Amino acid sequence: xxxxxxxxxxxxxxxxxxxxxxLGARVRSAAASQAAKPRLSGTVKFWHQWGEAxxxxxxAQMRAFEAVHPGVKVESNVLGFAGVQEKHMTAIAGxxxxxxxxxxxSELPAYAARTALMSLDDFVKRDGxxxxxxxxxxxxxxxxxxxxxxxxxxVSSGAVYLLFYNKDHFRESGLExxxxxxxxxxxxxxxxKTTRKEGGQLVRVGCNVGIANYTDGIAFANWLYNNNGRLFxxxxxxxxxxxxxxxxxxxWMVDFTDRLYGGWDKIVAVxxxxxxxxRVAWTSEKAAMVNDGDWLxxxxxxxxxxxxxxxxVGLVPYNAKNPHAKSQNYTEGGWAWAIPRGSKNxxxxxxxxxHIGAGEGAYHFxxxxxxxxxxxxxxxxxxxxxxxxxxxxxxxxxxxxVALPSTPAFPKVRDILRTMTEEALARKKxxxxxxxxxxxAAQRExxxxx
Amino acid sequence: xxxxxxxxxLDAATYVLLTVGAVAFLxxxxxxxxxxxxxxxxxxxxxxxxLPGRPQVGNYVDALTHQPFGLFFRNSLIVAAGTILGDxxxxxxxxxxxxxxxxxxxxxxxxxxxxxxxxxxxVRLVPLFVIFQKLGWVNTFYPLIVPHWFxxxxxxxxxxxxxxxxxxxxxxxxxxDGASEFAIWWRIMLPLTRPALLVIAIFSFQYxxxxxxxxxxxxxxxSMKTVTLGxxxxxxxxxxxxxxWIMAAATAIGLPVVVVFYLFQRQFIQxxxxxxxxx
Amino acid sequence: MNWIDGGDTARVTPRxxxxxxxxxxxxxxxxxxxxxxxxxxxxxxxxGVFYFSLTxxxxxxxxxWVGLANYARMLREDELFWQSSYNTLYYVALRVxxxxxxxxxxxxxxxxxxxxxxxxxxxxxxxxxxxxxxTAVIWMWLFQPNVGVVNYLLELLGLxxxxxxxxxxxxxxxxxxxxxxxxxxxxxxFLAGLNDIPDHxxxxxxxxxxxxxxxxxxxxxxMMTPVLFFNLIMDVINSFQVFAFAFIMTQGGPLNSTxxxxxxIYQNAFQYFEMGYxxxxxxxxFLVILGxxxxxxxxxxxxxxxxxx
Lengths: 450, 279, 309
Fold this sequence. Notes:
Shape of chain C: globular
Strand order of the largest sheet of chain C: 1-2
Oligomer: heterotrimer
Distance between the termini of chain C: 30 Å
Largest sheet of chain C: 2 strands, antiparallel
Largest sheet of chain A: 5 strands, mixed
Strand order of the largest sheet of chain A: 8-9-10-7-11
CATH class of the largest domain in chain A: Alpha Beta
Strand content of chain A: 5-15%
Structural class of chain C: mainly alpha
Strand content of chain C: under 5%
Number of helices of chain C: 13
Structural class of chain A: alpha+beta
Distance between the termini of chain A: 38 Å
CATH topology of the largest domain in chain A: D-Maltodextrin-Binding Protein, domain 2
Number of strands of chain A: 12
CATH class of the largest domain in chain C: Mainly Alpha
Shape of chain A: globular
Radius of gyration of chain A: 22 Å
CATH architecture of the largest domain in chain A: 3-Layer(aba) Sandwich
CATH superfamily of the largest domain in chain C: MetI-like
Helix content of chain C: 55-70%
CATH topology of the largest domain in chain C: MetI-like fold
Number of strands of chain C: 2
């Protein structure tokens, strides 16, 4: 047992006001207390998705952790982003699971409901980790299921949507390059002005608001929350996206696409159907704006250097016609760290999760990426602000975000919403019809878990 | 003026059709290799360029090292070796039993064997997963290899056809000398069936090298991945943007089967032929 | 097995089994691996899939008996079941005739004894050896809507660009097209069948004054029906299992237009953790494939000619 030391470590961490001082203090305290605590040992089988440019950064955190815990070895296994859930599930079911996995919080209830994860409550209580204080409210809320905590947030879930725009495109179209469109009307105006056609062919689009095929988010749901709507009731027992805000939102997405581009097919030819291709359209300057997440900062820095210094970022525009609406994200798709049931080394696993999720490991993993994180304190670090001038916008997004009521039915509901959006955009159904049939199907899925 | 007969015209038409068809069939290979040697800007360019300006051989190094493809090749080879060995032994053993011995229910069993060729893998997927999960074999090579040690129906069939062509008298003298049936199979029959064994080895290799669904389900750790899984995860990794890398990896993992096909074309064709016609 | 023990009774030990029994024992011994494998990996799983289809099972718990609930849900509630069934039938209906037809056509062309024909045979067979994942990524790249070379070629020909895999209208035909790239094996089987047709039939027909077309119609095609029958059955069975292309290239989209049954089974089993429901889908797929196979087998009396030569 080593609660005392860990708590002290953490208090040292959270108590300091400046991150720089804090880090020094933590390392010292950790080193000093090493002798006093029963040593952790063994291997932590660690599965994550941080490959390519982020891998060395993650590996540095692993080595740093091992230096503090000399008996422990963190063994990294990088998965691709495709098929993560299947790999977790077959590994956990197969009886030889990794000790730490990286999962989407929106999928967490589906894992937890099948008892595939260990609850972290005992660890948190023992170590006196005040998760509600450390993380933004929505971030930690989305790591819970039926009142129990199953994960520690990794990336921020509330910044999965931000509006990135190309300042040059704004400038040449007579738009103010330092002013982000704040409302749906301003977005449409900006999109109209930045769209370019050559010989009747779209060569640049202003903004595709109709991306349906998100792997880690649903455009419809995002716009819905920016129209003061919601997907479910608070207990995730009844669907709520079929209320008037939902119909209004889907109708707006369809009308926007038709008015500006003459149909979904036309814009798909430029941006593709999913988030990845839409992002590439923006980075290759075939789109003026893109609704993308906070990972893009690092991607621009390492991959899409042509955009570097030429872009602005704002909150996702909201529907100003709805008096209750404001810019507001919902949590979906943000990754989190969890310990699978059947982990052979849960003690060391927890220590590593704490380090990489809430401790200095998180700080050092995100800082080089200039990427905001769910830990409040770190985001307020002035160093960070210097690195990433868009930090205030992201902080705003994070503190405004609302947590999605958790339900194990989510993966299926997400697929239903995706189909619904595509049906409406492709004019296979009217928005009303599409929502109606989606609501029936989604309600059925929710009912399975009541 | 040369007068073409009807046959000449037909020959010419055949050549034209075949040439157009062959170009269409081979074009994807050309495009794969050409893309694998292009730079990123060349890939994004439209209209596309036919050939890379300066061939980027380094793409192969990058593509094959940014994930541990060396390890994937090793894994695929291990699985292939285990599978081929199992297929050869089991197919030969079982086929010999069906071809050379009379026992009650033999013909019915053989029909059952043939019909299992038609049971889709995907239908058996869930129970197979449960079986291997209960055995604790998930994330090992066993689920990929062990079933082959019990015989693959198609190979058993192929082998049996071959045994039927070998005169039974060859075993006589050995039998009179008191050799056991097993020894006869091992010492006399097996060497005689070398051509058929080669066909099986080639097919077994192609099958296991190319297999996707079974590795996808049964292997988890990166260190256990086969080449096809490695290629698959590249799509997820690179966000489908580094097409030059993806094509380099596709070329690299396709090469072994293409080479094997080239070296053993005759056996290849033979194997396919037996499956269809004599069936 | 027909050696005779020459009446040398002294050598027959009492414990020796009768000849016939001995032979049977050896026979069973030799086929034992397959028998075990059959029970473990074919029969067992088939029985298992029927059993699981009557349960709710997430593999993390024990299966819970639910009777026919999975089937009721499938037939009454699940639109995606119908959608995936439609997609699969569409794929089978479009792909099987094209695949078998193309294979036959190529075999006819390649059967002709022309110079360099071996090269052509290699060219048409080669794609079939490529791993399915490699095939999928190659064609994803060829079919890119923006910078893809296929659309570029269409443009050169003055044709409109096609969204291919990103269009719900074109995704299925695109996958069929890609699957035709692997026509090699079926083509080779046809070729072998053509080789087996005795020359004297053609000679006799020529003497009777039959032209090429009539010879094709009255000799080649009837003589080839057994091969056609075999290819048809195998192709139907294989086509019903279409999985990897959709899994890799489209994940079932756009608009679920490439959500094939096998993919839907996989999703339910390994993405939604619903092994029981996935098993029910598997049972239906199994029965449908079995049904089609039986129909084709039953139909053979009408059109397959087993000539005795």
